[in-house]
Amino acid sequence: MVAYKDIQASNASINDANAPRVAVFVGGTSGIGQLTLRALVATGTSLRIYLIGRPSSEERSRRFIQELQTVNASAEVIWVEADVSLLAEGKKACEHIKSRESRIDLLFLTTGYSPFGVRQETSEGLETSLVLSYYTRMLFILHLLPLLRKSEAPRVVSVLGGGMERTSSINVDDIDLEKPGSFGITTAQPHYAALQTVFLDKAASEHPDVTFIHAWPGMVNTGNVWRGLHASQSILYWFIWGLLEPLIRLISSTDDVAGQRNLFLCTSAAFGGRGVPWTGQAGTSTLRTRDGGLFLANYKCDSTPNDKVVHVLREKASAKVWEHTHEVLRPYL
Question: Are 38 and 68 a contacting pair, CB within 8 Å?
Answer without folding.
Answer: yes
